Each structure stands twice: as structure tokens, then as C-alpha cells.
Amino acid sequence: MDAVQAVAEPRRREILRLVWDTELSAGEIADRFDVTFGAVSQHLKVLRDTGLVTLRQDGKKRFYRADREGMGPLADYLRAMWATKLDTLAELAEAAERADGAEGNAS
């Protein structure tokens, strides 16, 4: 599997987003999903095997971080995709606030 195929899976993209700017343990990552630890572990293995995350072991704990340099142009694509989603979310929130304000003024 190549890196593009790896990020085609939504949970793997979410894992990458979680470890984009910070290092998290496998348990911390798994706690954010509604699937088993084993399922998250498999996703982490795919991400590691495709060079999208780095692994640091400290005793029995495993810590993951996105390997943005190793991703090459894929890093720019993911960053742009997440920024677009955040912009859309912000626009929807502002529209909802405006609609609530308009309803409040009408009463």
C-alpha cells in the first residue's frame, strides 16, 4: 500500500490530524475513536509502514507523530484539505450565529 492509499481511509486521516503537531501515545490516539484498540493499532501500523508517522518507544509505551517531511507533497495536500474543512466549519458557525441573531431581533 502506498501513502495515498493509506490516507484514503478516513480514520487514518484523522489519526494523522491528531499527531500532526504533537506526539501521542497509541492509547491516547485509540481513546479518540469508537473502535477497538486493535483496530487503531492496525491503522497505526499502516501509517508507519507507509512512512506517514514516526514511532518512538519509551518503555512499553509507543508514541506516534506525523512525519511531514517524509510525506513530501502529500503533507501540503493534507494541510490544505484540513484548512478548507476548518474554513467551511467557521463559515457555517457564523451563518448559524447570524440566523440566531436575526431570530432574536424579530421577537
Automatic annotation (TrEMBL):
Statement: the UniProt record of this protein carries the keyword Hydrolase: no
Source species: Streptomyces plumbiresistens
Protein name per UniProt: Metalloregulator ArsR/SmtB family transcription factor
Superkingdom per UniProt: Bacteria
Domain HTH arsR-type residues, every copy: 1-93
Keyword annotations of the record: DNA-binding, Transcription, Transcription regulation
PANTHER family: TRANSCRIPTIONAL REGULATOR, ARSR FAMILY (PTHR33154), TRANSCRIPTIONAL REPRESSOR SDPR (PTHR33154:SF33)
Cross-referenced SUPFAM superfamilies: Winged helix' DNA-binding domain
Pfam families linked to this entry: HTH_5 (PF01022)
